[in-house]
Amino acid sequence: MLSKIKNNQKKRRKFLSGIIYPLIIGSTLIGILGLGILLFEILNKGLPWLSMDFLNNFPSRHPEQAGIKAALYGTIWITSLTALFSIPLGVGAAIYLEEYAPNNRITQLISLSITNLAGVPSIVYGLLGLGLFVNFLALGRSLLAGSLTLTLLILPIIIIASREAISSVPMNYRLAAFALGATKWQSIRYAILPSALPGFLTGIILALSRAIGESAPVLAITALVYITFTPTSPLDRFTVLPIQIFNWMSRPQEDFAGIAAAGIIILLVILLSMNSVAIFVRNKYQKRRVE
Description:
The protein is mainly alpha-helical. It is 78% helix and 0% strand.
């Protein structure tokens, strides 16, 4: 009787596996196919418009003269400043919460708040940045205000990913460091952080990828889509690639759709280049950890 029940359960599992596995493969292929079609359309429309003039010209009402220089420089500026602010704050907060903070209700409330903040819509951060950085702190509609706003946006992601990376380090690493006479900070500095670095980089990649593609919070800060200069300091006004692309797509002329596709290609190149460097460093430290 028992063997009959086991055989029936085994047949049921095989039957369900035979249904679910093709569904999973089909869903994956549909996603890949949709992505491939989207990339083909973007490349087909955007590649003819890519040129050095497109990279060196400022926006224009004439498609043949329009360029992406202001938005490109603005994106590089704001991404660099956001990384400069968010990475030390996010990793530092994660180290404190995992290694130093007592496990009490206040710490639990902070952890819950950070988790909830990761799901807040980006436009809410834009309005917060507009009220706090632009108006209250009188930073104006500058790169500094925009980067601080994006720092608030991605900080919960970096903290959560960094905490997970730290907690995944085996306790034996800590104990071995203490057994050798290391202090608390020395065990963190030389035993925990090198092992957790791949996890740190994963969170940073995801966070900066979100920041570089956001338009809602930046639009609330800068409110500019037509700029004919490049920023030279953190207090200058700016625009970014997502806003410039959206502006071109909203224009009725058909040529601007091709220019917008070219802008998307530039944005993808920046994003993939940045992620490739981070992934290379992450894989390098993962191999070193295994060795």
